[in-house]
Amino acid sequence: PFRFDISRIFTCCLPGVPESFSCVCPGFITVISISNTTLIKELQNQPIRILLIEGDLTEKYRHLGFNKATNINTVLESMRVQQDTTEELWTNYVLQVLIKFNVNLVLVQGNVSEHLTEKCIHTKRLVLGSVNSSVMQAFAEASGAVQVTYITQVNENCVGSGVSVTFWRSIPSDVIDRINVITIVIKTEGINLVTVVLTSPVTAQMQTKEDRFWTCAYRLYYALEEQKVFLGGGAVEFLCLSHLQILAEQSLSKRNYVCSGWLPDTSSWLASSLALYRSTVLKCLANGWHKYLSTLIYNTASCSSEFEASTFIQQRLQNATDSGSPSSYILNEYSKLNSGIFNSGISNKLEQIPSIYDVVIPKTEAWRRALDLVLLVLQTDSEIITGLGHRQLNSQETEGFLF
To answer: Is the pTM higher than 0.90?
Structure first.
């Protein structure tokens, strides 16, 4: 079955590039300095061997949890060699390892020594830092490479092969000069990795565009995980509003029955209070839904004012009640323009609008938190008015108290 693995999707943002360059491509796409253009030209026509480093690729890096042994000094520490000399010795050792195992591409999850990066460029080797752990895992699976923490752990079995490095697309030279970076794609056969390239000529809009993409991607991911969705566009909220009004009317008729003195257990003042005020509480909950939908319609420019939106909702509620089946009415209205129950008949736009769906769990959890707050307020009011805590009420008296 199809599985949407969001952990293998990445974004590459290119501000200052026309929107026509936005696309989805297999492999890992990233930006590097324009000074590496010559190096990429030399690497793109040859098979690449890859090395994966989990931590930082610096001389002073030690893995998390490392504790230096006490009363032990290394030879370099006892000689008090200068820092520059130590860095140079370490850089030369790293280069020897890369040359020994014929490695031309190094992906590092953490930071990379700038001095080492410059040395590698001169020897036709590309080192990329701050690479996502899922990218590292994808290349490990596809190329056969094994991730290591230190360069001293590298052996022939740790090096992967079959990787290619090339330029992503032919971006106009004037654009490249303006953004001062080049875009490359790194991939290998069978890699489970996709990069979404997001471009925008306006730099200030880039972050908003990326946030909108991830919002959409995660909604799709959770919808596929749950294998169910709500009708969007206010359809489910409208159904809740309709259902609450029906419950409020039913409670109102029961309250009239209680006020007539025909309650079976007239000695229970708590039961009488429940019957008297249940309809009021339900009406307040319905008013909350009504206010939410009015604001929703007003914010989508479907109505010129919230009063007009409220009147429109009231008309739809009456139509749903007259139909005899609010759920069937909502489904029929929702499918008219493939958009939402509040879009048909209130706008002069005739174009088709895509169907809107909402993810189930986030929406129901938001409702649950709101209802918990309402119940907390009701319980607090009850304790203030009656002077009785929840534990002081027996089960018979509290039957139906918390609904």
So the answer is: no
